[in-house]
Amino acid sequence: MKRLIQMFALVLAFGISASVLAMGLDEAKQKLDSVKQQGLVGETPTGYLEVVRAEGQAKEVVEAINSARRDEYKRIAEKHNIPVTQVETVAGKKAIEKTPSGQYVQMGGKWVKK
């Protein structure tokens, strides 16, 4: 029983520390331009960001931004009664079009500097 309590406490502590370490959306938004300009993160045709080079906080920025995008795409799809994939595709196309030159976009499954 004591062992079980210790395991539960360890799992609980890890869960709390992981949530504290997770990057918030506001912080991710502040860092997004920087990680894109550094070539660490790029836009994809699916409407989400992906890590181009796993350095710094690229992964954390991608996770936070993509979570917010996923929620927004779902909200839009439900509002217009269309599939989420349709919203993702339109958003991906727009994001790639708006990406400034010198930043990465995914084309045909490969990263290309726009």
TrEMBL record:
UniProt keyword annotations, A-Z: Signal
Signal sequence residues: 1-22
Name this protein carries in UniProt: DUF1318 domain-containing protein
